[in-house]
Amino acid sequence: MLELLQQGFGAVFSLNIMLLMLGGVAVGIVFGAVPGLSATMAVALCLPLTFTMGPQAGLSLLVALFIGATSGGLISAILLKIPGTPSSIATVFDGGPLMEQGLGVKALGVGIVFSFLGTIFSIIALMFIAPQLAKVALSFGPHEYFAIAVFSLTLIATLSAGSMVKGLFAGTLGIAVSTVGIAPVEAVRRFTFGVSKLNGGFSMLTVMIGMFAVAEVIKLAETGRHAVRSKAGSVSMKDIKGFGFSLKEFRQELPNASRSGLIGLAVGILPGIGAGTSNLLSYIVAKKRAKQPETYGKGNIGGVVASETANNAGIGGAMMPLMTLGIPGDTTTAILLGGFLIHGIQPGPLLFVSQGPLVYTIFAALLVASVMMLFMEFYGLRLFIKLLDVPKHILLPIILVLCVVGAFGLSSRLFDVWSILLFGVLGYGFVKAGMPVAPFIIGFILGPMAETNLRRGLMLSDGNFASFFTNPIAATFLGLALAFVLWQLYSAVRPRTGVLGQVLRT
Q1: What pLDDT, in 10s, does the model give residues 247-273?
Q2: Any idea what DSSP says for residue 202?
Q3: Which InterPro entries does the annotation name (predicted)?
Q4: What's the CA dihedral at 281, 283, 287, 288 to 10 degrees?
Q5: How many other CB atoms sit within 10 Å of the CB of residue 375?
Q6: In whole angstroms, what is the distance from residue 268 CA to residue 270 CA?
Q7: Most-buried pick from 62, 79, 390, 396 (CB within 10 A)?
Q8: Tens digit of pLDDT for each residue in 309-329?
Q9: How far is CA 1 from the centre of its chain?
Q10: Which residue blocks in 380-471 are alpha helix, DSSP H?
């Protein structure tokens, strides 16, 4: 293994591949930071460039794009409160408030460092335990996926700060919006009202751009041309040492990062779920385990750590089923699968035997690209923070144009452009009504997963719902979901019971 890894680093450290990877990481960061663009789009657009390259150079470029774009989403998520990619949605929850408190550089530094650590952790896991973990993930069927989705949906209550009713309404509305279009199993049109363009439903990127980016533009536009600049824009970089946070804070967040890395890795291994779910799930768990959960959503670096560690840990997780079983873990690795096939390489169990040097070249490329990402984003801190010096009446139209370009680039349809405006108005309504956006996003992401796997599970068991409880893994997750709901109800009733008891005693 060490000999193969040495050969891999020897190939990656050639001048040609190093320059390609530097360009790939830089372009990936830009694609991740611009709302509407994504890692999938970056890899897809650059895939034709690899036609004339060798397998080592071509695949090294693609994984560099993957790493750069996944991490780049934190830049706009923190500075503009607009997630650059779905994997950075949860970064907004605490990164945005930290920026408003004048701690934008600190939030960026935390995000960059723990993005790097999450990526390195997942790559090491990919190198040592990929075949075993991928086999476990492959054993998951519709029953297990349904139970996981239900368990994750019950966690909406954790993000419903202030009003449980508003949180549940937002989550239910997200599930309802996800049902628009052709049903996943029967192919029946639902809630399309005769509009053929609604047959495909709403894209995740469309919803995300609208609910976060366009809604934020509308909200900031209320202040007019003379909008007050954020405190973060006045931070002097001379006062910032290193990445902007202390070694003590780093040590305090290590348990959170370790837990979030494991969540991101586990979710990444499961095909079809992706980092858009893992960063939200790890954020919820971090909030539940925190000593002061009420500070989450108000500017706690733990929220940034949880989100960024998990979404980057998903890189290695998504690569595991791709390389060991030939099954892509998410949309980006599906494009990477095309990159393998272009060069006549079939990912799967025999890949490690027939293409050993190439496999370890990819491992080396992932490690080197992670280090490149760390240094590029560190030295780019000063450049990123300069974005806040741009007057809002100039910056906001540019952001809106980029959002429109990103939405149109999804499938070259004006319908997607109108969709982001629709969800922008809806997101603005959420802000005015004091409703949390996170439950809506969770409902929209997990609703289709729960519905599709419920129907598939019932088809496999001839309509017998009891099969979900006889399956050990599914029964465990459903039991945890029920226990969590009962605990939330008990927590809500307990204060009233305590007051009633005091009244009776007096």
Answers
A1: 888 898 899 999 999 988 888 777 656
A2: -
A3: DUF112_TM
A4: 20
A5: 12
A6: 5
A7: 62
A8: 998 888 888 888 778 766 666
A9: 32
A10: 381-386, 392-411, 414-433, 438-460, 467-470
